[in-house]
Design goal:
- By secondary structure, the protein is α+β, with helices and mostly antiparallel strands.
- The chain has a single domain, classed as Fe-S cluster assembly (FSCA) (GMP Synthetase, Chain A, domain 3, 2-Layer Sandwich).
- It is 34% helix and 22% strand.
- The protein has helices spanning 10-25, 61-74; strands at 29-36, 41-47, 81-85.
- A 3-stranded mixed β-sheet has the order 1-2-3, covered by helices on one side.
- Helix 2 (61-74) links the parallel strand 2 and strand 3 (81-85).
- Helix 1 (10-25) runs antiparallel to helix 2.
- The longest helix is centred in the N-terminal third of the chain and has 16 residues, at 10-25.
- This is Fe-S cluster biogenesis protein NfuA.
Length: 89
């Protein structure tokens, strides 16, 4: 199976993968869509876990944003913009 995002640098993947694992354990999803090293723009797809009984118990978009920004920068990647795409509904 070919990786559709093979052009994403290893540093970005190493920064995002641990956060994606946490989000998946929570019942959501987080995937790198693209990274442009020239502009420093990272695009990810995020789906928050559904928990009707406790809406504050799952990782939300602002938390994912904070985690990603810190993780990517700590891996030495210049990040100028982070775009989080969430499915409607």
């Amino acid at each position: 199976m070919e990786d559709q995002h093979a052009d994403v640098p290893g540093e970005v993947r190493r920064a995002v993968d641990p956060i994606a694992l946490i989000v998946r354990r929570d019942g959501g999803s987080l995937d790198v869509e693209s990274f442009d090293p020239a502009s420093g723009e990272l695009v990810v797809a995020f789906r928050q876990a559904a928990d009707d009984e406790c809406t504050t118990c799952t990782i939300d978009e602002p938390m994912v944003r904070a985690f990603l920004e810190e993780a990517v920068r700590s891996h030495g990647v210049e990040l100028t913009a982070l775009h989080i795409q969430s499915p409607a509904g």
